[in-house]
Amino acid sequence: MQEIFKGNFTQQEPIPEDGIAAALDVMRSGRLHRYNLSPGELGEVGLLEREFAAYVGSKYALAVCSGGYALATALRALDVKPGDKVLTNAFTLAPVPGSIASVGAVPVFVGVTEDLVIDLDDLAEKAHLSNVLMLSHMRGHICDMDRLVEICSEAGVKIVEDCAHTMGSAWRGVPSGRYGAIGCYSTQTYKHMNSGEGGFLVTDDDEIMARATMLSGSYMLYERHGAVPGPEVFESVKYTTPNVSGRMDHLRAAILRPQLTKLDAQCDAWNARYQVVEDGLRDTPGLRLVDRPNEERYVGSSLQFLLLDWPDVAISDVLGRCLARGVELKWFGGAEPVGFTSRYDSWRYAPSARMPASDRILHGVIDMRLPLTFSLEDCALIARIIRSEVGAVWQEQAA
Questions:
Q1: Quick check: is 112 in a domain?
Q2: What average pLDDT does this structure show over 285-310?
Q3: What CATH number is given to the structural domain containing 249?
Q4: Given pLDDT bands bounded at 50, 70 and 90, which one contains residue 321?
Q5: What is the pLDDT of residue 338?
Q6: Domain extent for 334
């Protein structure tokens, strides 16, 4: 009798009770707006900004309405203009090129390796095309950040890190988001903290932060932020920076603050689940796991593997067989985008040349969420199901 998994791949943990209590306090006050504060009060958003800056070791932090908003604000704060080119990953999710297009700029795609990180050789060849790289740590995979920074420094390229999938991660002990000029994070429901939608922008640069603060809709109330430069820094930007309102509200901040105190423990819990699935899939014929370098502290909130050079019909067969047994896998190599699994050639607002080496890799990428509502036993069962169905289709192909 076949084993069937009965869990839900989109069911997250409940908001912590102290977060619910804090949210109720905000709702009872009626003061949800980010600048609706009593005299001398910093408020939930300002406190969260200070606490998140301390967590990642940045000088400044801006809490915003979404990770995508943080990315677009980062580009505006760097004075990216319509028609400018911005380097970015070919393997990423649509909000990354979408943020580039939203400011009228043009994405220039850089290839992906079999380890699902940006191809640094391709980056070195293309670095002269732009002075900004929007680096996506797609699905939590961090490249050799030392070499990437060296390439960008030599070419005069400023780095914006998209850390939607790497909050809590690090490279050589440096938190994700701290290698570039700006780090951007997401607190959308399926990320590492959950406020439905939300995000952060962090930087150590005074002028970048002043511009980002004005962009977020501070009007002239920037002193009510939790982690910003002094008022003198705003003098040079406050009359020339447009208001593109998007700072977080107190309700979402109240939900997030207790989650931040638990984030490291949550990351450890994700990694325990990731390890069980990875161990269960290791040495499956026809399936390639992604090796994680020792320099990387990753957060295994999702897992990817490759079915390299498999025909479409065989990959579709694996997905169908697994789904019939309760395991929901996503495929980045399908002919049409499904849900979030679009590719660089799906974004027709962003012109691109074919990238055969990357296309081969993207064609084989299989993706799976690992919510913390799964137990370790659930993860072992999921691995057994995937291993069994991949093995069965592999044998049929060989026959």
A1: yes
A2: 97
A3: 3.40.640.10
A4: very high
A5: 82
A6: 263-398
> In angstroms, rounded to a whole number, what is the distance separating the alpha carbons of residues 161 and 74?
10
The CATH code of the domain that includes 328 is 3.90.1150.10
Long-range contacts of 379-384 (CB under 8 A, 24+ apart): 379/273, 379/276, 379/277, 379/280, 380/276, 380/277, 380/280, 381/3, 381/5, 382/5, 382/277, 382/280, 382/327, 383/276, 383/277, 383/278, 383/279, 383/280, 383/281, 384/3, 384/280
CA distance 365 to 330: 8
| pLDDT the model gives residue 340 | 81
- Answer with the residue of higher pLDDT: 70 or 340: 70
